[in-house]
Amino acid sequence: xxxxEKIFPKDVKIFLFTTNKYEGENFHKDxxxxxxxxxxxxxxxxxLPFVFRKFCKENQIERVINIGxxxxxxxxxxxxxxxxxxxxLHILGDIFHLNKNNFFNRLxxxxxxxxxxxxxxxxxKTITGSxxxxxxFIHFLGEKKIKFLPGPVNxxxxxxxxxxxxxxxxxxxxxxxIAIYVGRLNYLKGFDIxxxxxxxxxxxxxxxxxxxxxxxxxxxxxxNVIYLPSIDNKKLVDYYNAADICLFLSRKEGFGFVPRExxxxxxxxxxxxxxxxxxxxxxxxxxxxxxxxxxxxxxxFNLPKNKKKLxxxxxxxxxxxxxxxxxxxxxxQSVFLS
Length: 338
Prior knowledge:
globular, 4-stranded parallel β-sheet, 6-stranded parallel β-sheet, about 15% strand, alpha/beta, Rossmann fold, 12 strands
């Protein structure tokens, strides 16, 4: 939403419709919106589509778009019936990546896709941040209907800093090997593998930032872990820069902001070989195999300084070209406002 406020012309009015579940939420100051008018509604599954439709009519909304889960597609569709209003469907997750080892998960995902396709077909445009999903979509829906837009990374905020200075600021040793992970601590994010890495590598300090959803983590008493449930973006930039490498072993990801933010800071990344992450040019990729991940992590720390520096430079350059706010601004304006 902050990106939208930056790129949309002054004569474009922006509204955010959400539920009172988030009203009064103590968000970080990073997320304060300045131009957007926010409307909170009571959450009622049956009434919400009608409330939203009325809201759109009263505020003369011409186009609606989701910024959360694409399961809200029906509400978008309902708000436009018998009106001149249209909607864009923004698919933020990876909808084609199925769990091959679980029949019921595969069946559920298949049924979700069947429900989603009518919403896609009736949309003005459907946007995806997953390039692999985009390639699948265009085969049967065409390039006019489906648009690929990578998520925006604020490269002016997420930028390289002098590592020794940042470590001193954060009271971290200059001689310590440091790996960082940012995100929810759960199985889907590959935290089971990360937990084993922590046990196998007592000489590496692991900085973990995110909500803990993994019960076994509470049972451990690690000496090589710094755990922070949440921090603001400015401090996150410092931690990215303090780390030697960022680990992101997610099993499912639509776009993957965390490794891209780290790369924007010039921090090398080790990521899983899933569609949205294996395309990250300078990234070190790995299958979900603990022994392979362990080997690649140790190999990275054994690299000479000049090779680590080269990965760092290439990582920053890649993000500047792929998804910096400046590089994708015109694409967003074209898709959203035309």
